[in-house]
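ugh ok fine here u go
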Amino acid sequence: MKVTITHKDAMRFEAKTEKDSFIIDCPKISPIEYFLSSIVTCSATDLILIPKNQGKTVTDLVVDAEVLRNEDHPRKFNTLHLTYKFNSDADDTMAARWVMASLETYCSTINTIRDTTAITYTIIHNGNLIRENENMISGGGSNIDMGEINGCPT
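structure:
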């Protein structure tokens, strides 16, 4: 994986990846907000792709993230809480497994910060609160195999 950042003007930068490019417009959106957005998007793509690979469908997916950061520099993430709200044609147990598979195994961005950030999650599935303020299972990843996911490459 490779990315090149080029200064355009003022506080605007162009990010070029191996596949495409996009503009980072600071301070409109700060780099840490892009980073947090990437973390959430990584997990959100899992919540669409894992069910799809199992013949299930997720709709109305919204993932909210709340971060508390250190006061002093470097202002690393102390805590991250993710709230997953979605509907699906699966039962609550399967829906919870999808979220846990994303958090514990598939989401590269979350797994990049998990050793330094306390991560918790809440799941609202088909309008029902099925998990609230749960901690991630482990701090070092797991070997859960939910099959190959073909989507946003890591």
